[in-house]
């Protein structure tokens, strides 16, 4: 997983693929957002940011309360779900 996170565009591509797979599996937008939140929690706790973009996302995540973290997770899903 660390290799995926080294390049932010690769991370967005990775997330986009997972969001697409979840959608094709019939998951609702709300379920996908909840999963994105859980992934965000995991990444914030376990993965050291590898570049400026990831560091900014971590700092935003760390600064937010739970509702703001859910919003950030939904925004990340929205960012990669352009199709």
Q: Would you kindly provide a written description of the structure presented here, covering whatever features stand out?
A:
By secondary structure, the protein is mainly alpha-helical. Helix content is 80%, strand content 0%. It has helices spanning 2-5, 8-24, 29-46, 52-63, 66-80. It starts with a helix and ends with a helix. The model has no long low-confidence stretch (mean pLDDT 85). Pfam families: DUF3243.
Helicity level, as a percent range? over 70%
Chain-averaged pLDDT: 85
Note the total helix count: 5
What is the straight-line distance between the termini? 25 Å
Unreliable runs: none
- The helix/strand series, from N terminus to C terminus, equals HHHHH
Counted beta strands: 0
Radius of gyration: 12 Å
Keywords summarizing the entry:
5 helices, mainly alpha, 83 residues
Brief synopsis:
This protein is mainly alpha-helical and 83 residues long. It has helices spanning 2-5, 8-24, 29-46, 52-63, 66-80. Helix 2 packs across helix 5 and helix 3 crosses helix 5 (66-80).
Q: What is this structure's SSE topology?
A:
Elements: H1 2-5, H2 8-24, H3 29-46, H4 52-63, H5 66-80
Pfam families: DUF3243
InterPro entries: DUF3243, Uncharacterised_YmfJ, YmfJ/YflH_sf
Organism: Paenibacillus allorhizoplanae
């Amino acid at each position: 997983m660390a290799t995926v996170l080294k390049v932010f565009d690769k991370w967005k591509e990775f997330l986009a693929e997972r969001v697409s797979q979840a959608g094709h599996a019939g998951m609702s937008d709300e379920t996908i957002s909840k999963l994105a939140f859980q992934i965000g929690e995991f990444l914030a706790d376990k993965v050291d940011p590898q570049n400026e973009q990831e560091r900014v996302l971590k700092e935003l995540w760390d600064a937010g309360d739970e509702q703001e973290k859910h919003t950030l997770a939904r925004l990340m899903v929205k960012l990669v779900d352009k199709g």
